[in-house]
Amino acid sequence: MLTEETLIDQLKDRKTQSQAFEVLVDTYQKRLYWHIRRIVLDHDDADDVLQNTFIKVYRNIEGFKGESKLYSWMYRIATNESLNFLRNKSKKLGLSDGELQDRMIDNLEADVYFEGEAIQLKLQKAIATLPEKQKLVFNMKYFEELKYEEISEILETTVGGLKASYHLAAKKIEAFLKSG
């Protein structure tokens, strides 16, 4: 297994770049897919956003300064790509963010790639009601089991703020699940 520093060096070297990029994709593809999927909800949309994320990583690796971990940097790109995708999709469809969220939840119920049971669908509906930042923090902490310090690096915010966001998100989700 390559160290992160070695992988970054190989990604920046024209001779080893394509092989290193294959390693990068193999290493992070699944984690990034699920991170994106929890934001955009749809399998095909998640695949498109994942592809755009890796294209951005490839094009911008030269500018990666190593001030954060490589995966934190890639998660930040994936998060921004996902949020931009949703904004563009709601504009294209002429829907508000809330209307788009409702439509995405409805589509999730019909999605052949969604293997969840009723309780998982209800959890996704609860998460969909959260404000953007709470949704991101909850998904990263609950599903991806990232530490607050890692989430702080990805979202470029304080650990204290993240803890408050997670706590509020958990309370809202709990209330939503109890209400119906």
TrEMBL record:
<dbReference type="GO" id="GO:0016987">
    <property type="term" value="F:sigma factor activity"/>
</dbReference>
<dbReference type="Pfam" id="PF08281">
    <property type="entry name" value="Sigma70_r4_2"/>
</dbReference>
<dbReference type="Pfam" id="PF04542">
    <property type="entry name" value="Sigma70_r2"/>
</dbReference>
<dbReference type="GO" id="GO:0003677">
    <property type="term" value="F:DNA binding"/>
</dbReference>
<dbReference type="InterPro" id="IPR036388">
    <property type="entry name" value="WH-like_DNA-bd_sf"/>
</dbReference>
<dbReference type="InterPro" id="IPR013325">
    <property type="entry name" value="RNA_pol_sigma_r2"/>
</dbReference>
<dbReference type="InterPro" id="IPR013324">
    <property type="entry name" value="RNA_pol_sigma_r3/r4-like"/>
</dbReference>
<dbReference type="InterPro" id="IPR007627">
    <property type="entry name" value="RNA_pol_sigma70_r2"/>
</dbReference>
<protein>
    <submittedName>
        <fullName>Sigma-70 family RNA polymerase sigma factor</fullName>
    </submittedName>
</protein>
<keyword id="KW-0804">Transcription</keyword>
<dbReference type="GO" id="GO:0006352">
    <property type="term" value="P:DNA-templated transcription initiation"/>
</dbReference>
<feature type="domain" description="RNA polymerase sigma-70 region 2">
    <location>
        <begin position="24"/>
        <end position="90"/>
    </location>
</feature>
<keyword id="KW-0731">Sigma factor</keyword>
<dbReference type="InterPro" id="IPR039425">
    <property type="entry name" value="RNA_pol_sigma-70-like"/>
</dbReference>
<keyword id="KW-0805">Transcription regulation</keyword>
<dbReference type="InterPro" id="IPR013249">
    <property type="entry name" value="RNA_pol_sigma70_r4_t2"/>
</dbReference>
<comment type="similarity">
    <text>Belongs to the sigma-70 factor family. ECF subfamily.</text>
</comment>
<dbReference type="InterPro" id="IPR014284">
    <property type="entry name" value="RNA_pol_sigma-70_dom"/>
</dbReference>
<feature type="domain" description="RNA polymerase sigma factor 70 region 4 type 2">
    <location>
        <begin position="121"/>
        <end position="173"/>
    </location>
</feature>
